Amino acid sequence: MKFSEITADQWDELSPYLDTCLLPVTGMAGGEKPYEATEWLERLRDMMDLIEIPFKGRVVTYPAWHYITGSGNLPEMVNEWCESAKRAGFRYAIVVTANKELELACPAMNLSFLPNEDGSLPAQADVSDAIRSMWNGQAV
Protein backbone atom coordinates (compact mmCIF):
# COMPACT_ATOMS: atom_id res chain seq x y z
CA MET A 1 0.00 0.00 0.00
CA LYS A 2 1.34 3.42 -0.89
CA PHE A 3 1.51 6.14 1.76
CA SER A 4 -0.72 8.34 -0.41
CA GLU A 5 -3.56 5.79 -0.30
CA ILE A 6 -4.09 6.28 3.45
CA THR A 7 -6.20 9.18 4.69
CA ALA A 8 -6.03 10.69 8.16
CA ASP A 9 -9.41 9.14 8.96
CA GLN A 10 -8.23 5.67 7.94
CA TRP A 11 -4.88 5.64 9.75
CA ASP A 12 -6.19 4.89 13.26
CA GLU A 13 -8.23 1.98 11.93
CA LEU A 14 -5.51 0.59 9.65
CA SER A 15 -2.36 1.19 11.70
CA PRO A 16 -2.60 -2.02 13.76
CA TYR A 17 -2.44 -4.01 10.51
CA LEU A 18 0.03 -1.81 8.64
CA ASP A 19 2.97 -2.33 10.97
CA THR A 20 5.75 -2.43 8.37
CA CYS A 21 7.20 0.54 6.52
CA LEU A 22 9.14 0.22 3.26
CA LEU A 23 11.73 2.85 2.34
CA PRO A 24 12.88 2.61 -1.29
CA VAL A 25 16.33 4.01 -2.12
CA THR A 26 17.01 4.33 -5.86
CA GLY A 27 20.71 5.04 -5.36
CA MET A 28 21.36 7.40 -8.27
CA ALA A 29 24.25 9.87 -8.03
CA GLY A 30 22.65 12.60 -10.16
CA GLY A 31 24.61 12.38 -13.39
CA GLU A 32 22.47 9.74 -15.04
CA LYS A 33 21.20 10.24 -18.56
CA PRO A 34 17.40 10.05 -18.92
CA TYR A 35 17.42 6.46 -20.12
CA GLU A 36 19.77 5.48 -17.26
CA ALA A 37 17.43 7.09 -14.71
CA THR A 38 14.60 5.08 -16.24
CA GLU A 39 16.65 1.88 -15.84
CA TRP A 40 17.38 2.70 -12.18
CA LEU A 41 13.70 3.31 -11.47
CA GLU A 42 12.69 0.11 -13.23
CA ARG A 43 15.19 -1.89 -11.15
CA LEU A 44 13.87 -0.29 -7.96
CA ARG A 45 10.27 -1.05 -8.99
CA ASP A 46 11.21 -4.68 -9.57
CA MET A 47 12.86 -4.87 -6.13
CA MET A 48 9.83 -3.27 -4.49
CA ASP A 49 7.45 -5.68 -6.24
CA LEU A 50 9.09 -8.52 -4.29
CA ILE A 51 7.65 -6.94 -1.12
CA GLU A 52 4.66 -4.82 -2.11
CA ILE A 53 2.73 -7.43 -4.08
CA PRO A 54 2.78 -10.37 -1.65
CA PHE A 55 2.45 -8.20 1.48
CA LYS A 56 0.05 -5.49 0.32
CA GLY A 57 -2.15 -5.55 3.44
CA ARG A 58 0.69 -5.09 5.90
CA VAL A 59 3.37 -2.91 4.27
CA VAL A 60 3.22 0.84 3.62
CA THR A 61 5.60 2.15 0.97
CA TYR A 62 7.00 5.63 1.52
CA PRO A 63 8.42 7.97 -1.16
CA ALA A 64 11.75 6.90 -2.62
CA TRP A 65 15.07 8.59 -2.02
CA HIS A 66 16.32 8.91 -5.56
CA TYR A 67 19.67 10.68 -5.25
CA ILE A 68 22.43 9.74 -2.87
CA THR A 69 25.29 12.15 -2.30
CA GLY A 70 27.88 11.85 0.42
CA SER A 71 26.95 8.20 0.81
CA GLY A 72 29.42 7.91 3.71
CA ASN A 73 26.67 9.12 6.02
CA LEU A 74 23.88 7.21 4.28
CA PRO A 75 23.58 4.62 7.10
CA GLU A 76 23.07 7.49 9.58
CA MET A 77 20.36 9.03 7.39
CA VAL A 78 18.65 5.66 6.91
CA ASN A 79 18.82 5.04 10.65
CA GLU A 80 17.20 8.40 11.38
CA TRP A 81 14.45 7.70 8.87
CA CYS A 82 13.78 4.24 10.31
CA GLU A 83 13.65 5.64 13.85
CA SER A 84 11.20 8.33 12.68
CA ALA A 85 9.01 5.73 10.98
CA LYS A 86 8.89 3.72 14.19
CA ARG A 87 7.99 6.80 16.23
CA ALA A 88 5.15 7.35 13.75
CA GLY A 89 3.72 3.94 14.65
CA PHE A 90 5.48 1.36 12.50
CA ARG A 91 6.97 -1.63 14.26
CA TYR A 92 9.25 -2.67 11.39
CA ALA A 93 11.30 -0.74 8.83
CA ILE A 94 12.53 -2.38 5.62
CA VAL A 95 14.89 -0.62 3.22
CA VAL A 96 15.10 -1.69 -0.41
CA THR A 97 17.51 -0.38 -3.04
CA ALA A 98 18.30 -0.81 -6.70
CA ASN A 99 21.99 -0.09 -6.03
CA LYS A 100 23.95 -3.17 -4.98
CA GLU A 101 26.87 -0.95 -3.92
CA LEU A 102 25.08 0.93 -1.13
CA GLU A 103 25.95 0.29 2.49
CA LEU A 104 22.67 0.50 4.37
CA ALA A 105 23.31 -1.28 7.67
CA CYS A 106 21.96 0.59 10.68
CA PRO A 107 20.50 -0.37 14.07
CA ALA A 108 16.93 0.90 13.51
CA MET A 109 16.45 -0.96 10.22
CA ASN A 110 14.90 -4.40 10.54
CA LEU A 111 15.71 -5.68 7.04
CA SER A 112 17.25 -4.52 3.80
CA PHE A 113 17.12 -5.92 0.30
CA LEU A 114 19.41 -5.11 -2.59
CA PRO A 115 20.30 -6.75 -5.89
CA ASN A 116 22.66 -9.71 -5.92
CA GLU A 117 26.32 -9.21 -6.87
CA ASP A 118 25.51 -9.89 -10.53
CA GLY A 119 22.69 -7.32 -10.44
CA SER A 120 19.90 -9.88 -10.44
CA LEU A 121 16.95 -9.71 -8.08
CA PRO A 122 16.97 -11.75 -4.91
CA ALA A 123 14.72 -14.79 -5.06
CA GLN A 124 11.09 -14.06 -4.17
CA ALA A 125 11.06 -16.97 -1.72
CA ASP A 126 14.14 -15.62 0.10
CA VAL A 127 12.60 -12.16 0.45
CA SER A 128 9.28 -13.57 1.66
CA ASP A 129 10.98 -15.92 4.12
CA ALA A 130 13.09 -13.10 5.58
CA ILE A 131 10.05 -10.87 6.07
CA ARG A 132 7.98 -13.63 7.64
CA SER A 133 10.88 -14.51 9.95
CA MET A 134 11.14 -10.86 10.99
CA TRP A 135 7.40 -10.76 11.78
CA ASN A 136 7.68 -14.02 13.73
CA GLY A 137 10.51 -12.62 15.85
CA GLN A 138 13.12 -14.92 14.41
CA ALA A 139 16.63 -13.76 13.64
CA VAL A 140 17.15 -13.06 9.95
Ranges where pLDDT stays below 50 over 5 or more residues in a row are none
Rg result:
15 Å
Distance from N terminus to C terminus (CA atoms, Å) equals 24 Å
Coarse shape:
globular
Multimeric status of the protein: single chain
Fraction in beta strands: 15-25%
- Fraction in helix: 25-40%
Count helical runs: 4
Overall pLDDT, averaged?
89
Secondary-structure class: alpha/beta
How many beta-strand segments?
A: 5
SSE succession? HEHEEHEEH
Q: What is the makeup of the main sheet? A: 5 strands, parallel
Description:
It is a single chain. By secondary structure, this protein is α/β, with parallel strands linked by helices. The chain has 4 helices and 5 strands; from the N terminus they run αβαββαββα. Strands 1, 2, 3, 4 and 5 form a 5-stranded parallel beta sheet that branches. Strand 1, helix 2 and strand 2 (about 60) form a beta-alpha-beta unit. The longest helix has 19 residues, at about 35-50. The mean pLDDT is about 90.
